[in-house]
Amino acid sequence: MEHHETLLHAIYYLLAATIAVPLFRRLGLGAILGYLVAGAIIGPYELGLIYSPEATFQFSELGVVLLLFVIGLELNPQQLWKMRFDVGLLGGSQMLVTAAIITGLFALFLDVGWQQGFMIGLALALSSTAFAVPLMEEHKIMGLPIGRKGFSILLMQDLAVIPILLLLASWSPAANADTHVPWWLGLCTVAFLLLAGARIFNPLLQVVAKYGSREILTAAGLLIVLSVAYLMQLVGFSMSMGAFLAGMLLAQSTFRHQLAADIEPFKGLLLGLFFIAVGMSLNLRLLFAEPVLILALALALMLIKIAVITVILRIRKYPFKEGILIGLMLAQGGEFAFVVMATAEQSTFIPKDIASYVVLVVGISMALTSPLVILHELITRKRTLQEKAREEAKQAEHSLQELDEPEAHKAEVIIAGFGRFGQIIGRILTASNIPFNALDKNPDHIEFLKNYGVKSYYGDATRIELLEAAGIREAKVLVIALVNVEASLAITRLVKTHFPHITLIVRARDRAHAYQLAELGVENPIREIYESSLSAAVRTLTEVGYTEGQSQRAIDIFREHDQGLLHAAIAISKDPKQLALLVKQSRKELQDLFSKDIQL
Known about the structure:
Elements: H1 2-26, H2 31-42, H3 53-73, H4 77-82, H5 84-109, H6 114-125, H7 129-138, H8 145-171, H9 183-211, H10 214-234, H11 239-249, H12 256-280, H13 284-289, H14 291-315, H15 320-329, H16 335-346, H17 352-401, E1 413-416, H18 420-431, E2 436-440, H19 443-451, E3 456-458, H20 464-469, E4 477-480, H21 485-498, E5 503-508, H22 511-519, E6 526-527, H23 530-543, H24 548-570, H25 576-599
Parallel strand pairs: 1-2, 1-4, 2-3, 4-5, 5-6
């Protein structure tokens, strides 16, 4: 019975997401709001299709874990060290100022002690990393300086979760200090991972990539993420922080792009499940009973956070408009507020009715974030377009001034497959001072390239994410030097569809492969042993008595005839009988050509 119930729940989740997300995207309200509404409808407070969102919450938190891992892959310890002031000052001041304001409001309007008020303030000061980061990526500001400031605030909030829970445990009547891990053990674990993690993880992935398969490499990546996350949880930190640390340790690895591409589907599905679980936890009956109060409280929370973040960023010399935008994206309550409130309610530190209001306000603030960001964009769109035009003009002027100062490494050529065939091309490009990037699934090749300073990427070149990471949008030429025929054809189709501006130079394994490439529009595929065979034929003719001129003339006749035969065979390559007849006729024609040449 439990098996059937689990399967039925899975169907409910998938059905709710499949209906709600496309609908809300079509309405321009975003996928996250669709997940929240879907969860609220199938949850215990509405249709009651699923009565226990707690189990879903625990499992779906893996989505947040994988999100933090992918974010960590984009950073490295040096970058994080450079961010230390932003993380400490921006994130720390945002949390403390927001918590202080909320504590004051609770003391003013409710009969709540300062400790309870401050704990609620800290919980509400947290934003949702799982909500805000996709929102910033969707609006393409994650890579901008203001986006990095927003991420610094979110990172500080994730780091602060464990101190908040420790503070709650020390204030709680049911606190038991003996159950907590010593603080120094967590710091020692972090130090150990920072010092030894890169030396452990990268060699492990190299061995798996060399002797395993792509699926096993994905499994090894997930093993690393979940193991570090679990270890960090054991020593008193959050799983999210552990995943972020694991990603950061692999940020310099040659496998990072492949790992990010492989883990992306898991991350997306689990994040969607997480937001459905958040929606299921919302007590909409309480909302319908007191809609004005709940909405007012949610808007008040968002207004406080927007104001605090805007002022802090303004102090750091950022314009008000950018501060307001980041403030809006971080204005919602966070998923960890549910954890803090659940723990506080279980320990009787905070009354159940107040905890219910806090949880609902956090959920409603999440639901309001996307519409408010869209509304903000509609209001500022005209001015934004004007400013963008001015900025583009400045960029164009700046580019003209720097035409003689190209980037240090902007690959003109990408070589997919760096075996013997690709290496010769790479050596010639290097000698000619032409920058190129290399893609290969052989970790030994990648390590070899790194030793010689060549920018290389490990992974499957049939993945569009890896091609983009290697810079295919800016490159001029893609050399497909792979031995695998199916992979070669898959890359050719992919590039012809998505990057038609790229010139393709493709290695053909044999004549049949050349036919298939020609059908896809590849001009003059490079048959891998063709030219070397012709060179051998020249030497053979010379050794049996031909002059060099006669030998070369024979090769030229053969080359011209064979090229014509190849083009003629393409049209009938799928008809074996016609193809056999054509080959037979071509042999007679070639003999006639040589006979005429000898007579001349």
